[in-house]
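Support request from a user on the community tier.

User writes: "When I paste my structure tokens into the form, the page sometimes reloads and wipes my input. The last time it worked, I copied everything first. Here is what I submitted, just in case something in the input itself triggers the reload:"
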């Protein structure tokens, strides 16, 4: 199941196994990971808005677009203010690859099957990203403003996870 592969690859990637990153990712890498994760969820939500007719699923997807675009805009403003260039890394690449596979899988589904898979993936995705924020990204962030933005994002994304779980439970 792609969702499980996403969890495994993202969880492994969030551990960032490269020796140079043993102490955790750098702030430029964290910025790239966070922005990538948000962008991927925006893309998934836009796919849901095109394919779903379920009111609850569409409302959730609209929330994902709105909230992740807002957080990504704040992240871009922060990296510009700090004169930091986000640095591509294995974690971002792994997330992107897994998300592309999930979007391809979702593209083949219709109706309730699409809605269930999309929402199930959103639950798993938010659990993975929230876990990475808590255990790796926030503790590794050196810049106080970046850490504060990540903390704010984590609070919001925990709400997203709870909302996704609620919508998913209503689809069964």
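"...and here is what came back when it finally went through:"
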């Amino acid at each position: 199941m792609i969702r499980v592969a996403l969890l495994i690859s993202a969880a492994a990637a969030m551990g960032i196994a490269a020796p140079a990153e043993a102490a955790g990712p750098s702030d430029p890498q964290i910025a790239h990971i966070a922005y990538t994760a948000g962008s991927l969820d925006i893309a998934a939500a836009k796919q849901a808005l095109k394919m779903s007719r379920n009111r609850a699923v569409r409302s959730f997807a609209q929330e994902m677009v709105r909230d992740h675009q807002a957080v990504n805009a704040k992240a871009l403003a922060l990296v510009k203010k700090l004169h930091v260039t986000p640095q591509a890394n294995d974690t971002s690449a792994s997330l992107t690859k897994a998300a592309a596979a999930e979007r391809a899988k979702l593209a083949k589904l219709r109706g309730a099957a699409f809605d269930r898979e999309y929402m199930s993936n959103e639950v798993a995705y938010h659990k993975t990203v929230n876990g990475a924020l808590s255990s790796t990204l926030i503790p590794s962030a050196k810049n106080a403003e970046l850490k504060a933005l990540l903390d704010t994002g984590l609070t919001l994304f925990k709400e997203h996870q709870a909302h996704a779980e609620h919508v998913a439970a209503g689809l069964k």
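Agent notes: The reload is a front-end session timeout and is unrelated to the input. The radius of gyration is 16 Å. The helical segments are 2-14, 27-51, 55-82, 90-107, 111-140, 144-170. Escalated to web team.
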